[in-house]
Amino acid sequence: MAHLKWTSDLNTGIEVIDNQHRRIVDYINALYDASLTQNRDEIAKVLEQLVEYTLSHFAFEEEMQAEAGYPFVKAHQKVHQLFVRRVSEFKQRFERGEDIAEPLLSLLRTWLINHIRRDDADYVDLVKKNVLKIEPKPDKKWWKRLFA
Ligand SMILES: [Fe+2]
Fold first, then answer.
1. Are 68 and 135 in contact (CB under 8 A)?
2. Domain named Hemerythrin-like: which ranges (predicted)?
3. Which architecture does CATH list for 12-147?
4. What digits encode the pLDDT tens for the residues 13-64?
C-alpha cells in the first residue's frame, strides 16, 4: 500500500469541494502513516480527525445541494449515512482493540474515489450554476471546522 494520490480527474471543478476532498485524501494518507507506526494513540487521533472532518464535509455538501435545488439530496444523504455507519463500525472495532487499519484504509480509498467519480459528479453541473447563492453558515459547528 502506498499513499493515495490526487489525480486531476478527481476534480469536480467546484473549488471548495475539491479542497475538501483533497483534505480527506490527506487524512487518509495520515491514517496510513499512523498505521505504519502501530501507535494506537496516534491512529486514534488521526481516525477521530478524519471522521470529524468527513462529517463536516458531508454536511456542507448536503447543504450546498439543498440550496442548489439538487433533486437527489435525500439519496445522496443516504449514501453518506451508510458510509458513516460502516466507518463507525470500524472505529468501534478499533476501540475494542482490533487491528482494522488495512480493511479500513481500503474501504476509505475505494469508497472516496468511487463516490467522487460517480455520486458527486452527478450534482456538479447544477451546483456550479448555483454556487454563488450558497450562504455562509458561521453559526454551524461543521462550517467552523471547514472554514475557520
Ligand atoms: Fe458526497
1. no
2. 12-125
3. Up-down Bundle (1.20)
4. 999 999 999 999 999 999 999 999 999 999 999 999 999 999 999 999 999 9
